């Protein structure tokens, strides 16, 4: 029986991975939350990876502004921690599917970033995640899978969609930035795709390397907030467009976070769904209960 280790199993994506894997009686799943396994502990990582065929890594430092204040701490997890996982997978012959980010790119393009486009992060979080990507590429050139995602929202954990719907309870109008382009991505859809990629990898049908795990299409945070309001039965005109300079934050955000998805074809898989379809599925989903349902 195929043995799967999920690291970061208590996070937003981690919990959706466990939900997807729960339907698979052909897999033996080990769920490791941060309490069970701290990926910065090389020895513990080596022991945990042993006897597994595939590792799905959803563990990360995800506080983008916090990384600006303490880049070393973010890199210890997103760079060194991932290197421990990659080394352990190499040692035990396990495949590693590691989740990365659009923030490895500068965000100054005007056409979608291809999987092999040059990286050039503009903030500490992006640099820390790029260090993790390099570790996977170095230690697992044949069995390492980097899946870059972005703008994640889901049923578990704090995210933009739940924040917007929550704010609607106390504010008549919300001013939301309309000058950053991206691809909102439902964490449950990404989890489903990661498991499919693991299947393909184990069957020898997916080449190692970089895949872009974002929904297709594009919008702005303003567009996403309006779409979420509409699905929640709220008046979308309560959302008003504004610009990023009204909300100065420690970490600079890329203005253009639109990724291309050509590589999925090599694994025999389609790209993830359009962001609007995924958002609508998320609001309707019986499998991943959505706390943003207010109707
Ligand atoms: N959220 C987004 O919009 C977004 C965008 C692009 C890429 N990503 C990537 O997507 C992946 C999943 O993100 P997410 O949104 O699910 O984040 P999340 O909810 O913050 O989950 C991350 C998990 O990792 C755990 N963790 C932190 N440090 C750890 C360590 N040293 N050892 C083991 N576990 C540790 C966290 O535990 P604690 O909560 O206890 O610290 C948390 O459970 C990450 O690789 C992230 O970089 C996310």
Automatic annotation (TrEMBL):
The keyword NADP is annotated on this UniProt entry: yes
EC number: 1.1.1.133
Protein species of origin: Micromonospora matsumotoense
Gene Ontology cellular component list: cytosol
Similarity comment: family membership: Belongs to the dTDP-4-dehydrorhamnose reductase family.
Residues annotated as domain RmlD-like substrate binding: 3-284
Function in brief: Catalyzes the reduction of dTDP-6-deoxy-L-lyxo-4-hexulose to yield dTDP-L-rhamnose.
Annotated CDD domains: dTDP_HR_like_SDR_e
UniProt keyword annotation of Transmembrane present: no
Protein name according to UniProt: dTDP-4-dehydrorhamnose reductase
Gene Ontology biological-process entries: dTDP-rhamnose biosynthetic process
Keywords: NADP, Oxidoreductase
Enzyme class: oxidoreductase
């Amino acid at each position: 029986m195929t043995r799967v280790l999920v690291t970061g199993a208590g996070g937003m994506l981690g919990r959706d991975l466990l939900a997807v894997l729960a339907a698979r009686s052909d897999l033996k799943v080990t769920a490791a939350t941060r309490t069970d396994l701290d990926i910065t502990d090389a020895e513990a990582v080596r022991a945990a990876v042993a006897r597994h065929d595939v590792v799905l890594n959803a563990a990360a430092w995800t506080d983008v502004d916090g990384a600006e204040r303490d880049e070393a701490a973010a890199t210890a997890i997103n760079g060194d921690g991932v290197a421990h996982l990659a080394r352990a997978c190499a040692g035990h012959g396990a495949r590693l599917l590691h989740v990365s980010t659009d923030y490895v790119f500068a965000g100054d393009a005007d056409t979608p970033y291809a999987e092999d486009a040059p990286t050039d992060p503009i903030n500490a979080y992006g640099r820390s995640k790029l260090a993790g990507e390099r570790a996977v590429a170095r230690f697992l050139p044949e069995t390492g899978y980097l899946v870059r995602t972005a703008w994640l929202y889901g049923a578990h954990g704090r995210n933009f969609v739940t924040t917007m719907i929550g704010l609607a309870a106390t504010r008549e109008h919300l001013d939301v930035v309309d000058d950053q382009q991206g691809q909102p991505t439902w964490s449950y859809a990404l989890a489903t795709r990661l498991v499919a990629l693991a299947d393909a990898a184990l069957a020898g049908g997916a080449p190692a390397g970089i895949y872009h795990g974002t929904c297709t299409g594009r919008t702005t945070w303003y567009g996403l907030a309006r779409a979420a309001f509409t699905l929640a039965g709220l008046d979308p005109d309560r959302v008003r467009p504004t610009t990023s300079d009204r909300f100065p934050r420690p970490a600079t955000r890329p203005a253009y976070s639109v990724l291309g998805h050509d590589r999925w074809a090599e694994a025999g898989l389609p790209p993830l769904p359009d962001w609007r379809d995924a958002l609508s599925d998320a609001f309707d989903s019986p499998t991943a209960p959505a706390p943003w349902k207010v109707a």
